[in-house]
Design goal:
Layout (H helix, E strand, L loop, with lengths): L6 E9 L2 E10 L4 E6 L8 H9 L5 E11 L1 H5 L2 E2 L1 H18 L7 H5 L5 E2 L5 H69 L6 H14 L3 H17 L7 H21 L3 H21 L4
Parallel strand pairs: 3-4
Antiparallel strand pairs: 1-2, 2-4, 5-6
């Protein structure tokens, strides 16, 4: 089952420590390129996030953003470091005595000193654990979206493969008629020139024309590539690069078919094949 490389997922949770929100955006890319954005207190999770991501996806550009808002009760639970304030007052008085000036500190002066106000430390281990669990949920949701979009892409590709197969069948069925038409045109030109119709010579010329416009091999290869695409679409692994290669091969055979065509109908069929192949190539660019 193929998977799309474009998807988005967002999950949130609110608990005692505050609110956590993960957002994951994925777009197509030749390789795996993660971009992880974490709040300062959770920077250490970066390696674990990358490891969990690479274990489940192989291609795509991923923007993974975690937002953390501490609980209001946690933010408001500020404490005064009484011991540090007492030390600052003692040292201030001592310094004032040395320089012979009165020491008159203000509350604002003391509050500006680092460490006077103590912020309660969040339970970082618990916060990290909840963040990782929430990331797994977001990744699950994103992969489900990629799978659903992949099913849609597979249906579109199969539908175009069926149309391409029908076009190949029409060209193959028309080959005897094309050759007979070439025979009649050649005989007509010789008759206009009032040349003596040498049956052996005529058959030789017809054989040369048939050789130059023989497209059986191209049609066989087109059908072989189509069959392989159908098989690849059922694989449970990343197949985007394989599909892209097969479509390049299909396009090459369609170009050869067009160049060998001596019949307007066959030429139109070859052009239609190239249109279908290009449509599939556009879809495959988004397949993992």
């Amino acid at each position: 089952m193929i998977k799309s490389m474009t998807a988005f997922a967002s999950v949130s949770v609110t608990g005692e420590l505050g609110a956590l929100t993960w957002e994951i955006r994925a777009v197509n890319h030749r390789f795996l390129e993660p971009c992880i954005r974490l709040p300062e207190e959770l920077r250490g999770l970066d390696p674990q996030i990358r490891s969990r991501l690479s274990a489940r996806v192989q291609r795509g550009k991923f923007d993974c953003t975690l937002r953390y808002t501490p609980a209001l009760g946690v933010c408001n639970s500020l404490r005064l470091n009484h011991a540090l304030v007492q030390q600052l007052l003692v040292v201030g008085q001592e310094l004032a005595g040395l320089i012979g000036r009165p020491y008159e500190p203000t509350a604002h002066d003391l509050l500006r000193w680092p460490g006077v106000i103590q912020e309660p430390e969040a339970d970082l281990d618990r916060l990290a654990s909840e963040s990782l669990a929430l990331f797994d949920q977001a990744l699950d949701a994103m992969l489900e979206t990629r799978a659903r979009e992949g099913e849609r892409l597979a249906r579109l590709i199969r539908e175009r493969c069926e149309r391409l197969g029908a076009s190949i069948a029409r060209v193959r069925a028309r080959l005897p008629e094309v050759l007979e038409g070439a025979r009649q045109r050649l005989a007509g030109r010789l008759a206009e020139l009032r040349a003596e119709l040498d049956p052996a010579r005529l058959e030789q010329e017809i054989a040369l024309i048939a050789m130059r416009c023989d497209v059986d091999e191209e049609l066989d290869r087109l059908e072989t590539h189509l069959a392989e695409i159908g098989e690849v679409l059922n694989r449970d692994e990343p197949v985007g690069r394989r599909l892209d290669f097969l479509l390049q091969e299909l396009n090459r055979e369609a170009n050869t078919l067009a160049s060998k065509s001596i019949d307007a109908v066959t030429t139109r069929e070859a052009v239609e094949m190239k249109v279908l192949i290009e449509q599939m190539r556009e879809q495959v660019q988004n397949v993992e």
